[in-house]
Design a protein that fits this description.
This protein is mainly α. It has nine helices and four strands; from the N terminus they run ββαααβαααβααα. The strands form two sheets. A two-stranded antiparallel sheet has the order 1-2. The chain has a two-stranded antiparallel sheet with strand order 3-4. A hairpin with a 5-residue loop joins strand 1 and strand 2. Helix 2 crosses helix 4 (about 105-120).
């Protein structure tokens, strides 16, 4: 994996393409380009038989530049770095910051590619790709681009962690119809990856998402509930409503993701920490069983999740 940093200081983990896959993509592109070049050349020769030698040579050079250089540049520009060969091999050309390439990037890659691929039969490109840590040829170095793999093996599925038992059902009266799909996706992404984030960054992100969610629902987020737990409880409430609409009738607690059989439950930032302060050491919360009713802590003992229950 290669870590690219975008203009917004966000680190992207991309997998650079290796020499074999890149060479196969180039071979496919060259076969298609030379086939088109031969067909176009035969048509031009048949239609310009009456021209003199100088004019015929000029037409031949123009055809070579247009078909073998201009067309690949246009294809990479319009497809944002996916030529026919790269599409077949699951590759794409991106900028050094992970963004899509533009005309100037494709122009530099195509111009340098004439020398390192066409004129040297790919020897220079192979040597440069082997020497480069990220497999870049000279055209990529001068253009500031990188060829990455788009089709990568799928990782294990991630599940939204369940909320603490004493929060299940607390937000049954919220109006969730005004929450956009983009915000739901952002909340789910945060909940599935909050264990991988820096505590300070995770706490700030949870507060921001909780504020956005509260603004969409029209009800302020409770001050006695940490932001991450509030997000998990609201997502759980939405999934419970979806299950009720899908299956009809009364539906009990709907698990939002399988937890370990005999291991600790999810860890939320801010467990046991005062509201508005960075997270301290987190305490795990065991997911509720499938047939369990919403549970609340007894007055003589605190909640097992480590959260401070509401008054």
């Amino acid at each position: 994996m290669s870590e690219l940093v975008t203009g917004e200081a966000v680190a992207l983990e991309l997998r650079p393409a290796k020499l074999p896959s890149r060479a196969l993509a180039v071979v496919i592109d060259l076969l298609v380009a030379f086939t088109v070049y031969i067909v176009v050349t035969m048509g031009i020769v048949a239609s310009t038989a009456s021209l003199d030698d100088a004019a015929a040579a000029a037409v031949a050079v123009a055809t070579f530049v247009l078909v073998l250089v201009g067309v690949p540049i246009a294809v990479e520009t319009l497809s944002h770095g996916r030529s026919l060969g790269k599409l077949a091999c699951g590759l794409r050309v991106v900028r050094d910051d992970g963004g899509p390439i533009r005309f100037r990037h494709a122009l530099v890659r195509g111009a340098v590619g004439v020398v390192e691929i066409l004129m040297t039969f790919g020897v220079v490109a192979c040597i440069a790709s082997l020497v480069s840590e990220r497999g870049r040829r000279l055209g990529d170095v001068f253009a500031g681009t990188l060829v990455v793999r788009e089709r990568v093996p799928a990782g294990p599925a991630r599940f939204v962690p369940p909320p603490p038992p004493w929060l299940v059902g607390r937000f049954a009266g919220l109006d969730l119809s005004g929450v956009p799909d983009g915000l739901w996706l952002a909340v789910r992404s945060y909940l599935t990856r909050m264990g991988q984030l820096d505590p300070q960054v995770g706490w700030a992100m949870a507060q921001r998402l909780a504020g956005d969610l509260a603004a969409c629902t029209g009800a302020p987020a409770p001050r006695d509930v940490p932001p991450a737990a509030y997000l998990a409880a609201v997502v759980h409430e939405r999934q419970s409503r979806d299950a009720q609409r899908a299956f009809g009738g009364a539906v009990g607690v709907v698990p939002v993701g399988p937890g370990p059989v005999d291991g600790p439950g999810p860890v939320y930032p801010g467990v046991g920490a005062p509201v508005g302060q960075p997270a301290g050491p987190a305490v795990a919360a065991a997911p509720p069983p499938l047939d369990a009713a919403p549970a609340r802590p007894r007055e003589d003992e605190g909640p097992g999740t480590g959260f401070v229950p509401p008054a």
